[in-house]
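Example 3.2
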Amino acid sequence: MALEQTWRWFGPKDPISLQEIKQCGATGIVNALHQIPYGELWTIKDILQRKKFIEDAGLRWSVVESVPVHEDIKKRTSKYKEYIENYKQTIRNLGQCGLDTICYNFMPVLDWSRTELESQYHDGSVVSEYKQVLFTAFELFILKQTGEEANYSDSQIAEAKIHFESMSEAEKENLKKVVLLSLPGTDEPVSLEYLRNAIKEYKGISREKLKEHLKLFIKEIIPVA
């Protein structure tokens, strides 16, 4: 099986153009329809429109990353059955359009998290970064979620407190914005209140229960895939 050089691209609003990606030697694009809200159906029309946009640049849409899993599916609450049916039909539509590699994740509340989006690497390149001490500071001193101290040791809490107190207001605001970014490819963060409420909704869901919900979801979508 030959390997293909692909590039994660966040759609037409991505500051990196398809032409620039092509110049780097990539032939495939890893992309998703981020403009469609979680849980809603990806129509054949929307899929083909994005596929054509990529192909017109001389590239191919190689991987779908990702088809988001709605929070109701992860918690098995409210409209989860409807969202699972939408997910299954989205898989069918992607297959009909010639896309056969689909990624997903099943992480609660936030799909991914970083503490810095523009950190300079030692070779001069710009990368995203995750530092546990910064996330601990965010959780304890910005989010201020009751009871979260139990997740950390005394030394971790002390280190985070020192680090947080040494930060400027601008640095604290940047940390909050970066952690709260809601979707790949967007600069619109969710609110602290939204995050607090979302975490509360998972309080009664254990690790084992979340795994069971994942198992039930996979049993639904694998036959379709």
